[in-house]
Amino acid sequence: MRNKKNLFVPCAVLAVTLITGCSSGGDAEGKDDGVVSVAESDGGGKSTATKSPAADDSESGAPQIRLDTTEVEQIRMFQGYLRCLKDHGVPISGPGNKMPEAAPGTLWFPGIDVAKERPDAEKACHGKRPLPPPELDPKTNPDYMDDYTKWIECDNRRGLKVNPLPDGGGWNYKAGATQPRNEDQIDKECMIEAFSGK
Fold this sequence. Notes:
4 strands, 3-stranded antiparallel sheet, 28% helix, mainly alpha
């Protein structure tokens, strides 16, 4: 089965379309066999705080992603972090055709796992990396598993056929199921509905 979503990926990525910065594999659309993180992606929901409750002093100035944060807003939020990585020698380029609506000069994620391959740069820039929505963190959301179950149920009810991972860390496509063309929209709407309590 193809692994589509994984909530517990330790590096900073955006939603479905922004996987390239976290791993060495995966296309920009998130439709291959690569792992895609939503833990640090879509914003909005139960909290509109500007700082994660679990954030330490090194993260106090980092932007807080909400469940309803758009993809374009997210890439803007990551620009300070990406600029910092670039200043520390990490190869950074523009998004190319991955995000045609991005403004000129927009930086994109490196094709390496910075935390593993350039820990010095990650340490120096960590405080600039946007914080994921607290609703998507089991440590800050006591209702996480209930919300997660509702998310998976909503996806399946709306035609996005997925199987939950046993640890609540994401989902896999159901083998042989035909997926809807607007699967990303369905998944984001279901995630917002489930984790925002709406």
